[in-house]
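Note to self: keep these together.
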Amino acid sequence: MTGQDDGAVVARLLALLDIEELDTDLYRGATRDEGWKRVYGGQVVAQALVAASRTVTEERLCHSLHAYFIRPGDPAHPIVYKVERDRDGGSFTTRRVVALQQGRPIFNMAASFQTEETGLTHEAPFPAAPGPEGLANEGELTLKHAERTPEPWRTMWLSRERPIEFRPVAPTDPFAPVATAALSQHWCRLAAPVEGVSPAMARALFAYASDMTMLDICLQPHAVSWTDPRLQGASLDHAIWFYATPNLNDWLLFDGDSPVAGGGRGLNRALVHARGGGLVAAVMQEGLIRYRPSRSTAG
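Structure:
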């Protein structure tokens, strides 16, 4: 989106994640129609995490979540989140969340929360990667390809809000993809900094951002783009492990790869590092990458 008010866009994202409590363990989240046929998966993960976090004491933070996308979310309807309190232990709390639209489940998630504690530590070193300075962000890359972007992609890509700024280290051409190794690095942060965000909300913001680029990785070796009409793609499941509270006011580096694809599915994973050092999270996602070469490319 050209000329967007970054502060207002980020404020609207925070409002989107501030779900409404309908009753005990029952919440409702708004949706936004940005021209897509389905609700963005990261929004559902983030809202579900907020719902689960609302039922847990604030000193216990989510350390892992595992989610399945069951049906596409409809942007025309709100989403209701039902939380099940499975267990409240001495140091761990477990919750299950089902997301419903018009009475049908579209998503489910299990999340575990832990009281902060010390223990044995080690982590993967910070990978070799250029810094975010000088790299083009997603909006700039969209403008670069705007003249040859067909509808409806052109309108959607140019008009949609971008509360998260992404800067890929090695951007690809969505209309002339070249087969590359299944490796990916990109930097991300909030489009405008925010103050006073709780650790629980910081994790929800990260969950929102974590679904944006993962599935691209398993397409790279096949020189297939999301704009290819022969591709049917969608997130199937999503998992996050937190090892620190992500600070999206500063840059985070997603260092990802795709170790395998087959059966119409591709597996993607990323280690996420803080710019100043420290591995803050690990993300894994399997996605549908059903490809039908016989399908017409016309239009």
